[in-house]
Amino acid sequence: MGGMTHRESAHYWQSPKLPGVDLLRARYIRKTFARHTHETYVIAAITQGVEAFHHGGSVHRVGPGGLALINPDTMHTGHAGEPEGWTYEVLYPDASLVARIAAQTTTIRGTPGFRVAAADDPVSSRHVQAIHRALEEGNALAADTLMHAVVARLLRLHGGPLPERAIHTAGARNALRARAVLEERMADPPSLESLAAELGTSPFALLRAFRRMYGMPPHTWLTDARVHRARALLDAGLPLAETATAVGFTDQSHLTRHFGRIIGVPPGAYRRGRARTYKNRARPVP
After folding, report:
1. Span 166-215 CATH architecture
2. Residue spans per domain, the chain
3. CATH number for region 9-163
4. What is this structure's pTM?
5. How far apart are CA 274 and CA 12, in angstroms?
6. What's the pLDDT tens digit per position in 231-245?
7. Alpha carbons 154 and 117: distance in angstroms, whole number
8. What pLDDT band is residue 72 in, cutting at 50, 70 and 90?
9. Closest Cα partner for 79 from 34, 119, 118?
């Protein structure tokens, strides 16, 4: 991709030629991703520099030829692993697509997923980049073929069944109920103390159970959930200001700030990228 630049750029997009997959190509230097999750899988091929990210209680560093592999609903972060930042090309395949490929190509039983968060796998990295190139060229057959090949390879080399989240303890059940309350009352959520009282537990016990279940405290989880719901509303065509209010952000700038720290691009750029096919160049990050 040429030499490293001194300017950040990012393009988040979706091609109608490869349904069920979002894509991101970005060059980040000072970018810091907040603790967040994705509803999809994440397959990120680092092409230049080093990305560092927190995942599963450890900090992982990935350079050229390496991949960051994140399962759905798994808390992680992201930031530069060296002063020059990092460049990467990312695939976000949805769960149904990965499940179909796993059923056709592996013996995995249950929900398929990645057993490692980082892998040194230049072959898979080249496949990820080739999918981007194929979609730029409008080659649906190549993109779909490569998508099946790279997911099957990654599951064979680095995959297995995902463990089921245990919800047998009272704390886990309270965390699950707390999540349901926050989802239902996202625009006007209760305080931690009120939420704990409503569930018949203490704030500290609820906080501890929620962290154990979801990898982050309730207020961080709520911000993440608001951004995910905002994405769905933007996909449905709701204006930015109305989207911000609907999910509980104070205004459009509040939505924009958190959206960029989780998705990687501002909400307006996200909506444009989802509404039309790729236009070849990454756009500067505002």
Report:
1. Orthogonal Bundle (1.10)
2. 9-163, 166-215
3. 2.60.120.280
4. 0.91
5. 7
6. 999 999 999 999 999
7. 12
8. very high
9. 34
